Structure formats: C-alpha cells, structure tokens
C-alpha cells in the first residue's frame, strides 16, 4: 500500500495524506507538472480530466474539465500559489464556470503538495484545507462521482484525536 | 449528487463548529460513554454551571447530544449519528485521494508512457 497515512482533522478541516511513490522526486514532480500525465490520475476513471491549459509557475493557472459518463462536463480551475520545483506546489483548486474562470460562489480547496526523497523514492505529503465544513461537503459531493465505497464510522478515532 | 440526504450544509457547519471546542469534545466523549446531568458535567470543568450549560446547548443544536429533563435534572446523552456524519465526510475525501494515489502509481509504473520525458529525468 503506497498510502502511508491519512490524517483527517475535523477541527482544522484538513485532510493530510502521506504516500510513498516508487520514483525519485523529479519524476514524481512530473505527475503534477506534465498536463498529459496529470490528466491520467486527477479525474476518477468515470470522470476523466482534460487539462485545457497548464501554466506551472507562481501566479499561473491551469484550466481543466472532467467529462462524466453521460457526457456531463465539470470545469475546474487551479491557481498556482507557490511553486518550488521539484519540492513543493501550493494550489487553489476551484470550480469553474463555462468560461473556464473560477466560480466565486463555489468552494476553493487549498492543496499543499510536498515531495521529498524518501521511502521507495519519494514521500509525498498532500494537505487539503477547506474554509468551512459546508465547502468541504460540496467538494466531497463532487468527488462522489467516483462512486466511493460506503465509509465505516470511525468514532473511536475521532474521539481519541479529540 | 448529495453526500448526505438527511443533513443540510447548515447542519454540517454547526456540527464542525460544535466539535471545534475542547470542552465540548470532552463533554461529547463523556456522554457517549454514559449519560450525565448538566450539573455533574459542570463539576469536571473550571467554569460556571451556566457556561457548561451553554456548551451543552451548542452541542444540542449540532445534534451531537440530546438533553432531557428528568425531575429536577437535565440529563444529557450523546448522539452517535452526528459524529458518524463528520467522520464519513472526511473518509469520503480520503477515498478520493487514495484513488488518485493509486492512479499516480500506475502512471509512474507505466514504462510505455508515451509522455515520459527524455533526458534522464528519472
């Protein structure tokens, strides 16, 4: 299993995921930097992603759309907040309208990606942060397109963390 | 698609707000184990009875606890379903990312990747 740990924090509204990737950081970086590779993993298999633009530099943006099984289109917009090749990327991931621009009424997820040499090649740490629980629910609802498995209640873990 | 057809977004906001306070989390932990009166709960905290009562009211609005009057006492017990909702939202997000990491691995492992950069990036 390449996911080393996941740390949900209901108080801080963050999810931190640590994964071990079998490739050095430079190749792991390409997963994010190369649009053709990125679109092979970002969207769920039933909602493949196409990156229409991808300008990886601080202040740059990427525009993408995902196509659903019935031909539905969901558009997304990334703003690269910080880029430190090949170590770190900070991204604001937003929902976008038909014009490809961020929809101001929809949630924005701040994703912080860190890549370090370690494990079997690269230790990747991704932290997703939400501004509010409502936003988190909206984002999760969009992710439901993947048909995620029914989650098991982990009340003990939540209480132990509290 | 709706994640949770029972609770509205407002409910979820109240839930996380309620859980954001250490005293309130402690109250939830206690009353999930065993129901308790507000006055007996108040003895555990260095704050007034009224303050504890306010915390209980916040938890009640978030559906984390249920308060019932029993004689002269107000008895509080925990509502496990609300915690399940919070936990499930984060679990679903986790599943989304696990899927992404699995696909990342497949991309890295794919030696025939036509977009593999040349020049020994690996």
UniProtKB/TrEMBL annotation, chain A:
SUPFAM superfamilies: Bet v1-like (SSF55961). It comes from the Bacteria. Pfam families: AHSA1. Residues 23-159 form the Activator of Hsp90 ATPase homologue 1/2-like C-terminal domain. Belongs to the AHA1 family. This is Activator of HSP90 ATPase.
TrEMBL record, chain B:
This is DNA-binding transcriptional ArsR family regulator. Keywords: DNA-binding. Residues 4-98 form the HTH arsR-type domain. The keyword DNA-binding applies. It comes from Cellulomonas oligotrophica. It comes from the Bacteria. One of its GO terms (molecular function) is DNA binding. The lineage of its organism: Bacteria, Bacillati, Actinomycetota, Actinomycetes, Micrococcales. The keyword Cytoplasm does not apply. InterPro entries: ArsR-like_HTH, HTH_ArsR_DNA-bd_dom, WH-like_DNA-bd_sf, WH_DNA-bd_sf. Pfam families: HTH_5 (PF01022).
């Amino acid at each position: 299993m390449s996911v080393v740990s996941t740390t949900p924090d209901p108080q801080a509204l963050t999810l931190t995921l640590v994964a071990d990737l079998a490739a050095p950081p430079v190749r792991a970086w390409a997963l994010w930097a190369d649009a053709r590779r990125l679109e092979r993993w970002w969207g769920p298999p039933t909602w493949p992603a196409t990156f229409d633009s991808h300008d990886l530099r601080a202040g740059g943006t990427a525009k993408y759309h995902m196509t659903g099984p019935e031909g539905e289109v969901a558009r997304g917009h990334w703003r690269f907040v910080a880029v430190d090749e090949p170590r770190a990327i900070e991204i604001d991931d937003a929902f976008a309208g038909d014009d490809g621009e961020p929809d101001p009424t929809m949630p924005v997820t701040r994703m912080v990606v860190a890549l370090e040499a370690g494990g079997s090649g690269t230790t990747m740490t991704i932290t997703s942060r939400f501004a509010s629980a409502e936003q988190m629910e909206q984002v999760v609802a969009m992710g439901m397109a993947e048909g995620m498995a029914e989650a098991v209640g982990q009340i003990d873990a939540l209480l132990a963390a509290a | 698609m709706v994640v949770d057809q029972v609770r509205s977004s407002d409910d979820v906001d109240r839930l996380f707000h309620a859980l954001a306070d250490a005293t309130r989390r402690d109250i939830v932990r206690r009353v999930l184990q065993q129901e308790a009166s507000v006055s007996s709960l108040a003895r555990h905290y260095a704050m007034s009875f009224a303050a504890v009562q306010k915390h209980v009211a916040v938890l009640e609005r978030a559906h984390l606890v249920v308060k019932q009057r029993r004689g002269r006492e107000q008895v509080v017990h925990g509502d496990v379903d609300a915690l399940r909702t919070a936990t499930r939202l984060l679990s679903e997000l986790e599943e989304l990312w696990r899927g992404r990491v699995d696909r990342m691995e497949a991309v890295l492992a794919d030696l025939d990747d036509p977009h593999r950069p040349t020049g020994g990036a690996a």
